[in-house]
């Protein structure tokens, strides 16, 4: 077993995207598949392009909270404005609707490498916060983590290429009031110049 700690710089100002870059290098070496779980996803062009490179090599699945299921109002406001861009990366996008907001931050690459920690795949974690990920090379732990992660995916809807969803029969999507949906749209638009804070 090999364990490596990866961290962003510890300064109080903007940071180089060390964690995202390191995770990207590992994902680009994947031979079979990549599975990402993150509560929220807020990307810039660099992050979109990186994921396109990876999906050109191997299948990538990313699970996030659905807008209705998440508890971060700003991230939930941003995602609908960029949903198509996530679909265009070639990733399989799963939106979790399990009832309680999901906060797992983990990554599985092939059958022997996994990572867990505090890093969200969003701009704030990438460029502002001092996040860390523990990268573990262990087939046994990777298999256990993957089994745990996949167990949540039964309660997900899958984003289809045309922007619609494939929804499991047992899954009930939360009924959100019209005023809250309107607020998501307004806040999402207003926050576009400040997405690095989300």
Automatic annotation (TrEMBL):
Transmembrane segments: none annotated. GO terms for biological process: cardiolipin biosynthetic process. Residues 98-125 form the PLD phosphodiesterase domain. PROSITE patterns: PLD. Pfam families: PLDc_2 (PF13091). GO terms for molecular function: phosphatidyltransferase activity. This is PLD phosphodiesterase domain-containing protein. It comes from Enterocloster bolteae 90B8.
